[in-house]
Each structure stands twice: as C-alpha cells, then as structure tokens.
Write a structure and sequence with these properties.
78% helix, binds zinc ion, mainly alpha
C-alpha cells in the first residue's frame, strides 16, 4: 500500500469498515510511514471533533472535501521531501 491508497482507505480505516487484509496493509503502512501516521492522527481528531459537536457522522461531501485536501497535502509534500528522507 502506498500513501495515496492509504489516504483513500483512511476514512474506512477510522470507521473500522475495512476487511482484515486491507486493515493489515493499512496498519503496516502506518507503522513505516510517519507522514501517514500524522495524517491519520489529524484526520481522526478532525472526525472525532465533528462527531463530538454534531453527534452525527460527517456528511459524505464534507468528508470528500476533507480527504481531497489531505491528498493534495500529501502530493504537495512529495514535491518537497521532508528533511531526513
Ligand atoms: Zn504513507
């Protein structure tokens, strides 16, 4: 699994909607990729914040916008590799 796939599955990962294989792949990627680990942490907090304030799941379009932003952030990062890589 690469970063882009991880981001695609991230929403389902957070919601525990992935099957065992995908979940294992995602967890393995998260163990080895600091960037995605940070993205997961941020996304989970954002989703929990929404859930906490709205008491209902994030509407799909809003989620898509959120993940679109995250994907863009990841691809921007690739143009400018983080230090130490
Ligand atoms: Zn990654």
């Amino acid at each position: 699994m690469n970063c882009e796939e991880l981001i695609r599955y991230l929403s389902d990962y957070i919601d525990n909607n992935l099957n065992e294989d995908l979940r294992a792949d995602a967890e393995e990627h998260l163990r080895t990729c600091h960037n995605c680990h940070v993205v997961l942490d941020t996304t989970r907090k954002t989703i929990l914040m929404y859930k906490g304030s709205l008491k209902e799941p994030i509407p799909a379009p809003r989620r898509e916008a959120l993940f679109d932003r995250l994907l863009k952030a990841i691809s921007d990062r690739e143009d400018c590799p983080p230090e130490g890589m």
